[in-house]
Inverse folding.
């Protein structure tokens, strides 16, 4: 396999003066130019390349990439499920694809109805009455949710509240969002069973508390058994609860965040509802909220009036806008189509995801350390600390070796409370054969760790590159092509320590 | 299980039984024992019944048919989203499953394709803007403006943001929404005759972190951009230009007239209108700001064998490492749309980019001369958009023109209440002289 993966030159290295892929109209009009002092002096050095070469370049790059379409991708907390092809066809319907967001609402009724319908669906799944689809990603949903909390408390004259509580197992986005929202952070510990530590929580929550941000099931893949008490602690203090929906794939139709006591919920449409992740995005991070928080949602709201659907800007208490227009509409089309394919049996989707995760856990629990021995939800966290201790093989080595078996690795070194963490989320997509093949590979790696640890430490062996010198990349950042000064390839070096752990 | 339920799932009934036996529970129900009874739903979700794939296709087609897309009328609608041509090579990038269905490239050995493409995208954005570093994309043209203000706040230690009134209203609104959490106060500088006065900016920028202006601005007018940047720089504030990527073949790159950052909406460069999203926002900056940049950045390095490779770098800026001390909370960005942008810009090449700019400019000038209507800001040079006065409520004019199959533009009164009769007309390279004649005819009625 490796020999088909020679280096693919950069577009800029393939560029030759005089080539081009584009052809444009030449209408019979007078030439026009911009004022001299504003005119571009030197053209940008974009690639000069013919269409055949452009097609081959992107095909070569695609060959050097791995998606769900390529194979099993159990990246914990990322919900790498199948992305139905019909959704790509639907989003390309001209009535959606070529629709201008400033089009008169009367000439965009189908789009506005789809938005309204998706709002209604998400409200039902969340168990909360009001929805905005505007946030572009889960992390933007988080920040928007914190802005709603601020607006809510200011409206109530409770300006002394300044602290948001997050779990020590939280995604990094939670504390980062707290800072961006201008709040202070308090961290609550995890107890021995993987639930929030209630004692610690009672100590932390007081009249200065804004609220809690929590993922449930947690990033350990565990449902918090005391969630009702957690909600009571915050609500008794007049504070609010925010549900990070990253792990909603475990509980659709089984348990609703609104029924757990959460006031604000974000959805990751690119996780639970199958918007393809596109190598990093786009995504969608809609929010569902209580009636008390609805007046503060971003504008426009999309409302139904008789048989029509309209944008409503008349929301005097609104926080404003967090993104242009209505949000990432194409993402809504895919998510809506995905949910309509399941109907009320979204529950079957979540049940299958949980079944697959527990099956993998059952097959792997004796070979790796299991820090929290409970039934898991849609994902679970193992630790490679036994391999590290006994054979000097790390979670990173396990991850890299899995590539040689044809699998994308799980999330590693996250959550931070588990050393040498391997966070595995198979999703509902996979066959039993695939799950078995993955489990067999994970077990084989345990044997390899004892017999030939060096093969693990030098893995992967069948990818286009071996391990990269990430420290060098960060120390002397080369973040754009250097044209005349660009080195064709760096000098040979020994692999250095990776810069940082990887997580969702 | 029914066919509806099965089609995105892969387990047979036998598989389920065997798996439950391996786990040691008798039913799937047993896997949810940790969910307290009080928070269980206990009834089916109240959702409409499942649809088969043909039914789903028909249902969505019916919804799509109740919209009037730009492809079904002669559209001069712009104001932030543009009907530029999207070449077929973009479809290739968008439909390759290896790009489409990949996650953020945390594992570089599995992701060299996306990582190299992002590196190429970053290079293209640096070339367009004349700056040193670009991130891998932001959500859209509004949020990257707020991101840039956050960078400026931390780079300068100042807490006022000066924003030109001639910046797109949605961009201003998003900056204002983000500002309280960022500890920023927003000061607006009014437009004068369709553009921003550098002297007024100089006054407002005295204690400011940054000056944000748009060029061409929301009225389509070319700003005195070098003078605005100079006014910001003289006051010790960072100059941030919000630019149209399609203008940068004819208009000077912001980095070459003193801007510390350039941001913009990438939609016009390679993404369809899609009712406002998803698209990509771009953010480029001077080298000295690299460690304050929000979002993903790809860097070049070498592997254990000395081969060149690409990797997410400077991750100590990011939320998954730095948590509450991160430069941003961003995780998901708009990579696939940015790669569509790269494909588009590569399709154009430097000469094509200049030609598109000249076409937009020429066709817009042609339209100005064909329309027998006064310009709202007759003193100003424009790019692909210009405002005309239609002599009465512009919404009525839009309604009437649309009845004749022409969408004549954007009524500015929606954002600027004193511009009741102003219509913002946008002419992209897709419009023909015949279509412009038709616009003139319809508006002349």
């Amino acid at each position: 396999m490796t020999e088909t993966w020679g280096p693919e030159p950069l577009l800029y290295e393939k560029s030759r003066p005089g080539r081009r892929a584009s052809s444009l109209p030449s209408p019979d009009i007078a030439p026009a130019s911009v004022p001299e002092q504003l005119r571009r002096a030197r053209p940008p050095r974009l690639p000069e390349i013919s269409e055949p070469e452009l097609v081959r370049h992107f095909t070569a790059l695609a060959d050097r990439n791995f998606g769900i379409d390529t194979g099993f991708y159990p990246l914990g907390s990322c919900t790498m499920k199948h992305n139905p092809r019909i959704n790509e066809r639907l989003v390309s319907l001209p009535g959606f694809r070529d629709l201008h967001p400033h089009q008169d609402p009367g000439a965009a009724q189908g789009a506005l109805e789809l938005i309204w319908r998706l709002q209604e669906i998400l409200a039902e799944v969340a168990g909360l009455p009001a929805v905005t689809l505007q946030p572009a990603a889960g992390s933007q949903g988080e920040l928007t949710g914190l802005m709603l909390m601020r607006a809510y408390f200011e409206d109530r004259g409770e300006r002394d509240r300044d602290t948001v509580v997050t779990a020590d197992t939280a995604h990094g986005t939670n504390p980062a969002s707290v800072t961006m929202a201008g709040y202070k952070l308090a961290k609550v510990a995890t107890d021995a069973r993987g639930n929030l530590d209630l004692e610690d929580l009672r100590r932390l929550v007081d009249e200065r508390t804004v609220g809690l941000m929590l993922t449930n099931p947690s990033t350990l893949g565990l449902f918090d058994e005391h969630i009702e008490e957690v909600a009571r602690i915050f609500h008794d203090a007049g504070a609010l609860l925010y549900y990070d929906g990253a792990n909603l794939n475990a509980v659709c139709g089984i348990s609703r965040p609104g029924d757990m006591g959460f006031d604000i919920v974000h959805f990751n449409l690119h996780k639970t509802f199958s918007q393809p992740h596109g190598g990093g995005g786009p995504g969608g991070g809609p929010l569902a909220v209580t009636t008390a928080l609805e007046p503060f949602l971003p504008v426009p709201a999309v409302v139904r009036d008789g048989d029509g659907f309209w944008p409503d800007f008349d929301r005097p208490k609104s926080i404003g806008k967090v993104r242009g227009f209505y949000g990432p509409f194409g993402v809504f089309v895919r998510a809506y189509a995905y949910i309509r394919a399941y109907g009320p049996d979204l529950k079957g989707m979540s049940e299958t995801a949980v079944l697959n995760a527990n099956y993998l856990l059952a097959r792997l629990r004796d070979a790796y350390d299991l820090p929290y021995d409970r039934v898991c939800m849609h994902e679970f966290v193992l630790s490679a600390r036994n391999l590290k201790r006994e054979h000097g093989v790390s979670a990173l080595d396990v991850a890299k070796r899995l590539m040689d078996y044809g699998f994308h690795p799980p999330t590693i070194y996250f959550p931070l409370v588990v050393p040498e963490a391997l966070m595995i989320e198979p999703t509902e997509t996979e066959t039993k054969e695939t799950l078995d093949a993955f489990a067999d590979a994970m077990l084989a790696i345990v044997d390899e760790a004892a017999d030939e640890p060096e093969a693990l430490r030098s893995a992967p062996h069948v990818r286009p590159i071996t391990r990269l010198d990430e420290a060098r990349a960060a120390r002397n950042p080369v973040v754009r092509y250097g044209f005349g000064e660009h080195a064709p390839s760096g000098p040979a070096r020994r692999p250095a320590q990776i810069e940082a752990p990887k997580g969702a | 299980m029914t066919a509806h339920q099965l089609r995105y799932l892969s387990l047979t009934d036998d598989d389920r039984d065997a798996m439950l036996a391996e786990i040691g529970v008798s039913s799937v129900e047993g896997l949810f024992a940790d969910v307290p009874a009080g928070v269980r739903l206990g009834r089916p979700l109240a959702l409409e019944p499942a649809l088969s794939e043909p039914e789903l296709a028909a249902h969505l087609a019916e919804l799509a048919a109740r919209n009037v897309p730009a492809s079904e009328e002669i559209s001069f609608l712009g104001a932030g989203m543009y009907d530029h041509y999207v070449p077929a090579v973009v479809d290739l990038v968008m439909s390759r499953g290896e790009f489409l269905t990949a996650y953020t490239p945390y594992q570089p050995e599995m992701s060299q394709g996306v990582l190299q493409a992002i590196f190429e995208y970053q290079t293209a954005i640096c070339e367009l803007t004349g700056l040193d570093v670009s991130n891998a994309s932001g959500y859209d043209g509004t949020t990257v403006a707020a991101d840039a203000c956050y960078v400026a706040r931390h780079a300068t230690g100042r807490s006022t943001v000066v924003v030109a009134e001639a910046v797109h209203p949605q961009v201003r609104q998003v900056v204002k929404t983000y500002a309280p959490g960022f500890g920023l106060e927003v000061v607006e500088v009014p437009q004068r005759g369709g553009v921003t006065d550098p002297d007024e900016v100089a006054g407002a920028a005295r204690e400011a972190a940054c000056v944000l202006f748009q060029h061409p601005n929301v009225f389509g007018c070319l700003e005195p951009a070098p003078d605005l940047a100079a006014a910001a720089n003289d006051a010790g504030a960072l100059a941030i230009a919000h630019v149209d990527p399609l203008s940068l073949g004819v208009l000077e790159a912001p980095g070459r007239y003193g801007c510390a950052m350039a941001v913009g909406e990438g939609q016009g460069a390679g993404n369809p209108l899609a009712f406002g999203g998803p698209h990509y926002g771009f953010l480029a900056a001077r080298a000295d700001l690299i460690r304050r940049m929000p979002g993903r950045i790809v860097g070049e390095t070498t592997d254990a064998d000395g081969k060149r490779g690409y990797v997410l770098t400077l991750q100590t800026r990011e939320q998954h490492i730095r948590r509450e001390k991160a430069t941003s909370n961003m995780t998901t960005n708009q990579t696939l749309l940015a790669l569509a942008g790269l494909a588009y810009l590569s399709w154009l090449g430097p000469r094509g980019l200049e030609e598109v700019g000249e076409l937009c400019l020429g066709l817009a000038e042609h339209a100005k001369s064909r329309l027998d209507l006064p310009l709202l800001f007759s003193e100003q040079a424009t790019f692909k958009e210009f405002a005309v006065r239609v002599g009465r409520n512009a919404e009525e004019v839009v309604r009437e023109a649309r009845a004749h199959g022409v969408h004549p533009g954007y009524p500015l009164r929606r954002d600027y209440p004193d511009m009741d009769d102003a219509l913002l007309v946008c002419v992209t390279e897709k419009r023909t002289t015949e279509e412009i004649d038709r616009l003139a005819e319809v508006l002349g009625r």
